[in-house]
């Protein structure tokens, strides 16, 4: 079967039935992992080829980067994963298997893995849950998860980054835009419910109740029954990312009822053709229908569905009209890859890096299968090549900047942890053109405080021991924050501006999504030894001359429940405050921790240790 025939067969098969309730939206908050996903991994540290070389990476360059990691001693600091990104495979499968690109990687992937393992490093690779990789090679894992996992086991892979291009069950990058039909319910005008002599018709606009934040009422119907696209920086990660239409329905007796939905289909963001109907609250609902309904002429030409049998109790029932397949399908695809890895080599502990760019809000479900999950689209699209560093930015209107990624990740602390996994604002851009030394230092501080994976993305040949770049990425005290055994992401406890991304005044700095970067943030991170790290961060490109501070009471209010030896911190009469960038220490007896000024894009990060 040729590639095009394979794709057609996959489309005809569809995303499949999710018979196990464990895959469902209603199970996202139950805390249970799938396929025995291993827990307690600290954030991964290493080097990824994409920012430095794009699709131009080679075996020779990869070995040079590995040699440089060891020469610089960065491996001893924890940078052990060497990850091949896109551009390393042949463009098509051979006998159903993925193969090394023979010019770029002439020795094959097993030989490269052996080279890295012999140096005490670990080998990482890349694929995609779609039909193709983002650079175009027709070797995505979709439908091939088990055979690909076997290949990775044979090659000795320790880390797998899995992208989201050409995904058949959502309108992802390079996918058909009409795939939105899978991930949105049709527009809904109302429902009809009947059993014997009993019959009732309810209007979606007049009688329906909107749940969540996505659905909206038009004049005569409800639309956008689905999940926000989280790829860009326009939607907060906190709160319900999906919307449902709900009806509270009273019936005279228990039994089976016929439910017909008055609907109109589409194939665009906001309106689709896949309908889900459930009865009951989240966590205890019974799913009555999950699939396509016949297409209508347009998103505003309505028809009644065939009767859907629903089981109701006497009295009030909650009927939910929805489509959570954007998240459910993606979870299922990544879970298939994890299952394949565990079947191929159950003894191997492979790190699974979910790279679907935050599109389906993996902070809600990623912990079930992954060790980390990307939160936004790429941090830069101007990648380098052999001899060219590529370009980075501090700020941008989209995702391509340090602050854009930070602004979202910084309020996602409650989604992360040793028992879950880590929010991933993409690999670091330290060493690329466009960032100053101060920006690089703050970039590194942000990622370390937020427990983000510390993946270097630069051409390591541009770094020498003792130079400014080396001194940033080798700061043991700052790395220790990221790798602290307690495994708690820092929480923002203060923001000098509290207007959220939509212009509304926020209420809590740890929940409010702020994109105005003319501000100062203060982060607090509890550590395993009972101390607390504080980071004062100036996101502005102008100096902030006024003072900023946070007191002991505020620290305890926000992170006290996560602290080790909280009482010792609370009752201490004084504290040792150590600057993690200068190494200077001072005694603090006030319990208020302050900085007098912050240079543009700079940070002051300290470790606060209570005296006995």
Q: Uncertain spans, ≥5 residues at pLDDT below 50? A: none
Strand content: 15-25%
Tally of separate domains: 3
CATH 2nd-level architecture of the largest domain: Alpha-Beta Barrel
Alpha plus pi helix count = 12
Structural Rg: 26 Å
Q: Distance between the terminal alpha carbons, to the nearest Å?
A: 71 Å
Widest sheet: strand order?
19-18-17-4-3-2-1-20
Structure description:
This protein is of the alpha+beta class. It has three domains: 44-174 and 328-482, TIM Barrel, CATH 3.20.20.70; 184-322, Jelly Rolls (Sandwich), CATH 2.60.120; 491-610, Immunoglobulin-like. The chain contains twelve helices and 28 strands. An eight-stranded parallel beta sheet has the order 19-18-17-4-3-2-1-20. It has a six-stranded antiparallel beta sheet with strand order 21-22-23-28-25-26. Helix 5 (145-155) crosses helix 6 (325-344) and helix 8 packs parallel to helix 10 (476-482). The longest helix has 20 residues, at 325-344. The model has no long low-confidence stretch (mean pLDDT 97).
């Amino acid at each position: 079967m040729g590639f095009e025939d394979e794709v057609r067969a996959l489309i005809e098969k569809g995303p499949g039935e999710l018979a196990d309730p464990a895959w469902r939206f209603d199970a996202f908050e139950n805390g249970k992992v799938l396929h025995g996903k291993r827990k307690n991994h600290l954030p991964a540290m290493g080097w990824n080829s994409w920012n430095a070389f794009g699709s131009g990476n080679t075996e020779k360059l990869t070995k040079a980067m590995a040699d440089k990691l060891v020469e610089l001693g960065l491996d001893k600091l924890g940078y052990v994963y060497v990850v091949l990104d896109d551009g390393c495979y042949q463009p098509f499968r051979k006998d159903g298997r993925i193969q090394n690109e023979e010019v770029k990687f002439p020795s094959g992937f097993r030989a490269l893995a052996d080279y890295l393992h012999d140096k005490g490093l670990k080998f990482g690779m890349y694929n995609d849950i779609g039909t193709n990789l983002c650079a175009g090679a027709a070797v995505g894992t979709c439908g091939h998860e088990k055979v690909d996992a076997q290949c990775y086991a044979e090659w000795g892979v320790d880390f797998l980054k899995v992208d989201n291009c050409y995904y058949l069950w959502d309108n992802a990058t390079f996918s058909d835009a009409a795939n939105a039909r899978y991930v949105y319910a049709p527009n809904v005008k109302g429902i009809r419910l009947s059993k014997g002599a009993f019959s009732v018709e309810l209007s979606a606009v007049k009688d329906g109740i909107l749940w969540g934040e996505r659905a909206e009422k038009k004049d005569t119907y409800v639309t956008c029954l689905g999940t926000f696209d989280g790829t860009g920086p326009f939607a907060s990660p906190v709160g319900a990312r999906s919307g449902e239409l709900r009806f509270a329905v009273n019936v005279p007796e228990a039994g089976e009822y016929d439910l017909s939905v008055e609907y109109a289909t589409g194939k665009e963001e906001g309106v689709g053709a896949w309908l889900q109907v459930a009865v009951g609250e989240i966590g205890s609902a019974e799913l009555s229908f999950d699939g396509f309904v016949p297409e209508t002429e347009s998103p505003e030409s309505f028809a009644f569905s065939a009767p859907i049998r629903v089981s109701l109790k006497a009295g009030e029932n909650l009927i939910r009209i929805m489509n959570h397949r954007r998240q459910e399908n993606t979870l299922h695809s990544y879970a298939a890859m994890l299952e394949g890895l565990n079947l191929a080599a159950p003894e191997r502990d492979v790190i699974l890096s979910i790279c679907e760019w935050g599109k389906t809000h993996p902070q809600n479900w990623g912990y079930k299968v992954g060790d980390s999950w990307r939160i936004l689209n790429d941090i830069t699209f101007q990648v380098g090549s052999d001899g060219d560093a590529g370009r980075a930015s501090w700020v941008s209107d989209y995702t391509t900047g340090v602050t854009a990624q930070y602004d979202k990740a910084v309020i996602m602390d409650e989604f992360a942890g040793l028992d879950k996994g880590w929010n991933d604002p993409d690999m670091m851009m330290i060493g690329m053109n466009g960032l100053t030394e101060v920006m690089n230092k703050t970039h590194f501080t942000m990622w370390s405080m937020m427990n983000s994976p510390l993946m270097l993305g630069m051409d390591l040949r541009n770094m020498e021991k003792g130079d400014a770049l080396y001194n940033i990425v080798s700061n043991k005290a700052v790395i220790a924050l990221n790798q602290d055994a307690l495994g708690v992401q820092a929480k923002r406890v203060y923001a000098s501006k509290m207007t959220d991304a939509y212009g509304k005044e926020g209420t809590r700095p740890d929940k409010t999504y702020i994109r105005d970067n003319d501000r100062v943030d203060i982060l607090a991170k509890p550590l395993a030894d009972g101390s607390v790290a504080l980071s004062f961060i100036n996101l502005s490109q102008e100096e902030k001359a006024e003072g900023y501070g946070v007191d002991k009471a505020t620290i305890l209010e926000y992170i006290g429940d996560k602290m080790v030896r909280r009482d010792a911190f609370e009752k201490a009469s004084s504290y040792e405050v150590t600057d993690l960038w200068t190494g200077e220490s001072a005694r603090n007896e006030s319990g208020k921790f302050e900085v007098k000024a912050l240079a543009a894009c700079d940070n002051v990060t300290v470790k606060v240790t209570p005296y006995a």
